[in-house]
């Protein structure tokens, strides 16, 4: 592990991370992102309720959190396994699961939504949460590509609405994009920034523009790599090798697409294409569509452009 990541993870357990006004956090969606956000929020002293549609899904979320925590603890507490066990028990004791979103937000200071990248589904969820959550509760979406304002209009608390965009894998990636819409109050925005810092993340302020900062640059790059293969100019393997060894990226664009999820990439690009049909950077890709139609969604299902390593 590189030193900065080690120091970052160490700060979880040493209590050196800043505190924020937000203590009780509800995370809706226990997939790739929601599980990671829940893990880091609980590791940094927050009480976390993780919500998904079924108990079976939540069992998988819990076991992925345990595995990821074990990776952290194995390295962090290599010389003191007992303290590692205590840390892990403490983190897990601050995390519970729930299938009823309305029950899960009853004493929540902050709700972070990390469900499927679909505007209508997100709006429906937030409209119902708006009725169930206390007045003071702040709402945030982890959307990769949907304008925050288009989600926020489903609620009557746009002043308490913003975006918290995390990066995969959440326990390792240090960045958090904090997005405000014109209606977001200064108080809400400052609380979101403080919460991000309390989670040990470095925050950047973003406007509600397509893809915020990172995805506006990263997704067109990933899509152009797919188009390069569609045009028969190179193989995925050669593109990945080239970008890792020639540009110093930790993963090539095809490895990264498998890691993010081909379905998520398709949701992003299709959404942007529908909104900005004349921008060639947002053109859909027949090859990506084919893989998604075949159910090759990436590492989360065992296969995408590559077969996932066991
Ligand atoms: C789509 C969106 O909206 C936004 C997005 O998220 S875009 C995607 C952004 N993410 C990226 O770009 C990721 C790019 N890839 C990387 O940075 C790296 O390949 C990686 C951090 C994922 C893995 O790093 P690696 O060196 O190849 O592998 P690995 O050795 O397994 O992991 C590095 C360290 O992180 C730790 N780690 C990796 N995944 C982990 C996880 N899920 N939980 C806990 N620890 C983890 C490992 O234990 C390892 O620690 P040591 O160095 O102490 O051994
Ligand atoms: N995959 C990535 O690298 C990143 C994804 N995101 C965004 O995070 C969100 C989630 O993405 P992933 O975690 O990758 O998806 P995922 O497919 O791994 O997980 C989504 C989870 O949400 C659950 N879900 C769906 N509808 C629900 C509902 N109405 N109520 C409760 N749970 C529901 C699903 O059962 C699933 O477990 C998306 O908006 C995505 O764009 C953001 C950053 C990175």
UniProtKB/TrEMBL annotation:
Broadest EC class assigned to this enzyme: oxidoreductase
BP GO annotations: cell differentiation; fatty acid beta-oxidation; spermatogenesis
Catalytic activity entry: (3S)-hydroxyhexadecanoyl-CoA + NAD(+) = 3-oxohexadecanoyl-CoA + NADH + H(+); (3S)-3-hydroxybutanoyl-CoA + NAD(+) = acetoacetyl-CoA + NADH + H(+); a (3S)-3-hydroxyacyl-CoA + NAD(+) = a 3-oxoacyl-CoA + NADH + H(+); (3S)-hydroxydecanoyl-CoA + NAD(+) = 3-oxodecanoyl-CoA + NADH + H(+)
Highest taxon of source: Eukaryota
Domain 3-hydroxyacyl-CoA dehydrogenase NAD binding per the UniProt entry, residue ranges: 24-209
Subcellular locations according to the entry: Mitochondrion matrix
Residue(s) at site: Important for catalytic activity: 165
Cross-referenced Pfam families: 3HCDH, 3HCDH_N
Residues reported in the UniProt entry to bind CoA: 68, 75, 144
Classification via Gene3D superfamilies: N-(1-d-carboxylethyl)-l-norvaline Dehydrogenase, domain 2, NAD(P)-binding Rossmann-like Domain
Keyword Repeat among UniProt keywords: no
Signal peptide: none
Positions that bind NAD(+): 29-34, 52, 117, 122, 144, 168, 300
Annotated 3-hydroxyacyl-CoA dehydrogenase C-terminal domain residues: 211-307
EC numbers on record: 1.1.1.35
Family to which this protein belongs: Belongs to the 3-hydroxyacyl-CoA dehydrogenase family.
Role this protein plays: Mitochondrial fatty acid beta-oxidation enzyme that catalyzes the third step of the beta-oxidation cycle for medium and short-chain 3-hydroxy fatty acyl-CoAs (C4 to C10). Plays a role in the control of insulin secretion by inhibiting the activation of glutamate dehydrogenase 1 (GLUD1), an enzyme that has an important role in regulating amino acid-induced insulin secretion. Plays a role in the maintenance of normal spermatogenesis through the reduction of fatty acid accumulation in the testes.
Subunit description: Homodimer. Interacts with GLUD1; this interaction inhibits the activation of glutamate dehydrogenase 1 (GLUD1).
Protein name: Hydroxyacyl-coenzyme A dehydrogenase, mitochondrial
Organism: Dreissena polymorpha (Zebra mussel)
């Amino acid at each position: 592990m590189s030193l900065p990541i080690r120091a970052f993870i160490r700060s979880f357990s040493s209590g050196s991370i800043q505190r924020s006004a937000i203590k009780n956090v509800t995370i809706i969606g226990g997939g790739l992102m929601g599980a990671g956000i829940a893990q880091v929020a609980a590791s940094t002293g927050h009480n976390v309720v993780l919500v998904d549609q079924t108990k079976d899904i939540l069992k998988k979320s819990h076991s992925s959190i345990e595995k990821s925590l074990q990776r952290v603890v194995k390295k962090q507490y290599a010389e003191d396994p007992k303290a590692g066990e205590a840390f892990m028990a403490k983190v897990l004791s601050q995390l519970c699961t729930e299938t009823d979103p309305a029950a899960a937000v009853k004493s929540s200071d902050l709700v972070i939504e990390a469900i499927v990248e679909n505007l209508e589904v997100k709006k429906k969820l937030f409209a119902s949460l708006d009725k169930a959550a206390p007045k003071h509760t702040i709402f945030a979406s982890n959307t990769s590509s949907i304008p925050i304002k288009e989600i926020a209009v489903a609620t009557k608390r746009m002043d308490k609405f913003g975006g918290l965009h995390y990066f995969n894998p959440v326990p390792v990636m240090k960045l958090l994009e904090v997005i405000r819409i014109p209606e977001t109050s200064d108080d809400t925005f400052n609380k979101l920034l403080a919460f991000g810092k309390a989670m040990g993340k470095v925050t950047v302020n973003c406007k509600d523009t397509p893809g915020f900062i990172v995805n506006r640059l990263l997704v067109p790059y990933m899509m152009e790599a797919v188009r390069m293969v569609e045009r028969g100019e190179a193989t995925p393997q050669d593109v990945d090798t080239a970008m890792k060894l020639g540009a110093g990226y930790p993963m090539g664009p095809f490895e990264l697409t498998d890691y993010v999820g081909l379905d998520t990439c398709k949701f992003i690009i299709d959404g942007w294409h529908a909104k900005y049909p004349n921008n060639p950077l947002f053109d859909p890709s027949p090859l990506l569509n084919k893989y998604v139609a075949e159910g090759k969604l990436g590492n989360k299902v065992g296969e995408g452009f590559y077969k996932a390593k066991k």
